[in-house]
């Protein structure tokens, strides 16, 4: 049996997760050179190209989650991205003592976001979404 608040909960959860990615992607546009430099300092090749791909993924994925359009695809793509970001940018196991707790917190934040994305990937967008309005396939 479906709980009567499930549709609202899925819509709110999608919106909160989507807003996180959308705003993060848009913020990277205004700080492009600095973010690309930071990515390069972490050893990522072709940082500017990767940053453009990151912005596109975060903005498009965030909008898809908010609208509830192709949510499972968006959730899985953002899940992989978030996992890679956690490992590359928040490697708490290799951090110096002063940065250890901050990096651990960021890593765990990413893990929690991944948990939400896993849930969306498993259950989909819910009825209050563009996916939910699509006609059932036979």
Sum up the overall morphology in one term: globular
Order of helical and strand elements: HHHHHH
How many individual β-strands?
0
Helix segment count? 6
Strand content: under 5%
Structural topology:
Elements: H1 6-30, H2 32-41, H3 47-67, H4 71-89, H5 97-123, H6 130-133
Helix pairs in contact: 1-3, 1-5, 2-3, 3-4, 4-5
Comma- or semicolon-separated keywords:
single chain; 138 residues; mainly alpha; globular
Overview of this structure, please?
The two termini are 23 Å apart. The protein has helices at 6-30, 32-41, 47-67, 71-89, 97-123, 130-133. The chain is an all-alpha fold.
In short:
With 138 residues, the protein is mostly helical.
